[in-house]
Amino acid sequence: MATAGCSRLLTTLLLIQHGVEVGRYVSLERLVEETKTDYYHVLAECSQGWHEGANPIVPWWNYFLGFLRRAYQEFAALVESAPRRPAKAELVRTAIAAQVGPFTLADIRGQVPGISAPLVKKVLGEMKKAGHVRLVGRGRGAKWEVAAGTR
């Protein structure tokens, strides 16, 4: 059985090296374990006539491709059930709404890493139009405030 485990490990490694990365997210070893009766049956079938070079490979390919299909189906189910990450604009809105006192565009960018200045400006513009924030001052020294009663 140790040889079978090594071959499955090598199979996973080869799949990853060739861009089939489902094994990083779904346990391929577990999937084999769940279908081990079929797995060992197919191995036995494909081993017959091996020494004469007359062993059939099609049953193995059918098992293997079905196995990969099951792995991708399980991966799709994991992705669909994963909690959604808020959109960047929503992260900016949340950071702005949490401000106490005057704040700058740079303050928001510091609190939400990876957000561009144009996106922060866009969200501030939308929130200003909706009456949720107001601009205090002009130019480089301009600051923003969350409008009273919008928290």
Topology overview:
Elements: H1 2-17, H2 28-34, H3 36-47, H4 58-81, H5 88-97, H6 105-111, H7 117-129, E1 133-136, E2 143-146
Antiparallel strand pairs: 1-2
Helix pairs in contact: 3-4, 5-7
Average of per-residue pLDDT values: 87
Note the beta-strand portion: 5-15%
Q: Compute the number of strand runs.
A: 2
Can you list the strand order of the major beta sheet? 1-2
Question: Globular, elongated, flat, extended or rod-shaped: what is the shape?
Answer: rod-shaped
Helix/strand class: mainly alpha
Looking at how many chains there are and whether they match, the oligomeric state comes to single chain
Alpha plus pi helix count:
7
Distance between the termini: 63 Å
Order of helices and strands: HHHHHHHEE
Q: Strand count, sense and closure of the main sheet? A: 2 strands, antiparallel
Radius of gyration: 28 Å
Tally of domains? 2
Low-confidence stretches: none
Question: What is the share of helical residues?
Answer: 55-70%
